[in-house]
């Protein structure tokens, strides 16, 4: 299955390269995000990716970057999200876990010209993932609350809602996964990659989606998760991490963008 996933990532990378030829910029790397990174994928799982684009020099200078932030849909229905480097760095600084995981995945395609950039990001990833523990904790818990809402709220209708059950088993599984990852990372001191790896809970979590329990049982789980967020996790983050930054991530991200900009300028001078 690993070879098949990598093959899909390469297909996404090729599609993004073609997009860049038509729209400008250069692809730096394409990385997978989603269930494969948590070891929760099945044969039916989509392969979704995020790609970092180095904008055209004039677009970078004049701030015309919106066109580089879009999502392409592949023929098989999977999604290839595009972010220009400055905006991707903003996501890293915001401690957006959905973007940070792209620095920990084994499924990645890196353009030769930008291997140095990807290498620098990998060297920074552990510092980035602990750069602002308070902000990251709030973000993580925000995703957890969102998943609970999607499991039992009206948004579930468009996100896999099961009318026979009256809730969304997939979103409930996601909520329980995020809770476990949060607990490991913040309360047990796991590294980011170890915290999101659900190998030892794979069967238990997948069963929530594939063999869903009745609504009355599921809502008990959901209410317990929501109570845990409000009464345990949120106070824990507030008490332990508010206003405590272990690393000046903003400065380092700005430095990385500056280096990429200079590299882009040098390449354009050489290549015309």
Detailed description of the structure:
With 272 residues, the chain is an alpha+beta fold. It folds into two domains: 2-128, Beta Polymerase, domain 2; 133-241. It is 60% helix and 10% strand. The protein has twelve helices and five strands. The protein has helices spanning 2-23, 35-38, 57-62, 85-93, 97-100, 115-128, 133-152, 169-187, 192-196, 202-210, 215-241, 249-271, and strands at residues 26-33, 48-54, 70-73, 79-84, 108-110. It has a five-stranded mixed β-sheet with strand order 3-4-2-1-5, sandwiched between helices. The N and C termini lie far apart (42 Å).
Summary keywords:
272 residues; alpha+beta; Beta Polymerase, domain 2; 2 domains; 5-stranded mixed beta sheet; 60% helix
What is the structure about, briefly put?
This protein has helices at 2-23, 35-38, 57-62, 85-93, 97-100, 115-128, 133-152, 169-187, 192-196, 202-210, 215-241, 249-271, and strands at residues 26-33, 48-54, 70-73, 79-84, 108-110. It is α+β, with helices and mostly antiparallel strands and 272 residues long.
């Amino acid at each position: 299955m690993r070879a098949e996933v990598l093959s899909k990532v390469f297909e996404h990378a090729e599609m993004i390269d073609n997009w860049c030829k038509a729209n400008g910029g250069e692809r730096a790397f394409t990385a997978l995000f989603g269930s494969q990174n948590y070891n929760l994928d099945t044969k039916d799982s989509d392969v979704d990716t995020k790609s970092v684009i180095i904008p055209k020099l004039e677009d970078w200078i004049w701030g015309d970057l919106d066109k580089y932030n879009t999502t392409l849909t592949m023929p098989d229905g999977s999604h290839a999200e595009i972010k220009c480097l400055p905006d991707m760095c903003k996501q890293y600084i915001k401690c957006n876990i959905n973007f940070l995981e792209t620095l920990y995945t084994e499924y990645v395609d890196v353009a030769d010209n930008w291997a140095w950039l990807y290498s620098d990001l990998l060297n920074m990833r552990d510092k980035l993932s602990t750069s602002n523990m308070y902000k990251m904790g709030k973000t993580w818990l925000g995703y957890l609350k969102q998943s609970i809402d999607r499991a039992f709220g009206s948004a579930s209708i468009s996100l896999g809602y099961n009318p026979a059950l009256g809730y969304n088993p997939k979103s409930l599984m996601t909520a329980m996964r995020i809770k476990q990852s949060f607990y490991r990372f913040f309360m047990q001191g796991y590294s980011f990659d170890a915290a999101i790896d659900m190998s030892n809970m794979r069967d238990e979590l997948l069963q929530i989606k594939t063999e869903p329990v009745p609504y009355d049982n599921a809502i008990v789980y959901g209410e317990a998760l929501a109570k845990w967020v409000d009464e345990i996790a949120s106070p824990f983050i507030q008490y332990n991490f508010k206003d405590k930054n272990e690393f000046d991530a903003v400065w380092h991200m700005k430095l990385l963008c500056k280096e990429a900009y200079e590299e882009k300028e040098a390449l354009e001078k050489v290549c015309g």
